[in-house]
Amino acid sequence: MLPEIQIEIADFLYREAYLLDHRMYKEWLDLLSEDIVYRMPMRETVEGVGVDNVASDSAFFDESKAALTTRVNRYYTKSAWVENPATRQRHFISNIRVESGSGPDEYKVVSYFLYKRSRGSHPEIEEMLGERHDTIKRVNGDWKIASRIIIPDQTVITTMNMSMFL
């Protein structure tokens, strides 16, 4: 793995976090490939060491680019009451690991995330943390997210709603 690729992909993910934190959702959509798979499977509480505790048959999110575009476009209407007032949010991305993917200019990327948000004048801060498994590829000279699997650490999501993008 070339160090330049690692740096480019890390910068790409930091730029993505900036767009989301500043509610630049239409610009964020431009970072996604047309055939993206955007999924957040549920965590399960299971006993045993080394047991897979990520559900294969149920998910919080399982969306296409069309579904994500619909969600984004709704934010720009008056019916997006969940974002009125708008949330203040931060996406912290760390532990970025990059490996070659299955094709040229395609990479498998694993990163950790910490998401925090607050609303209005409420003192409560909501948070979610976990790991993301991305496929990132270069399309016409630009990096695009072709696949994102979000694996939350929590089995019970304590956020008031799931209107965020991770």
TrEMBL record:
It comes from the Bacteria. One of its GO terms (molecular function) is dioxygenase activity. Keywords: Dioxygenase, Oxidoreductase. Pfam families: Ring_hydroxyl_B. The keyword Oxidoreductase applies. The keyword RNA-binding does not apply. Signal peptide: none annotated. NCBIfam families: PRK10069.1. Belongs to the bacterial ring-hydroxylating dioxygenase beta subunit family. This is Aromatic-ring-hydroxylating dioxygenase. It comes from Cohnella kolymensis.
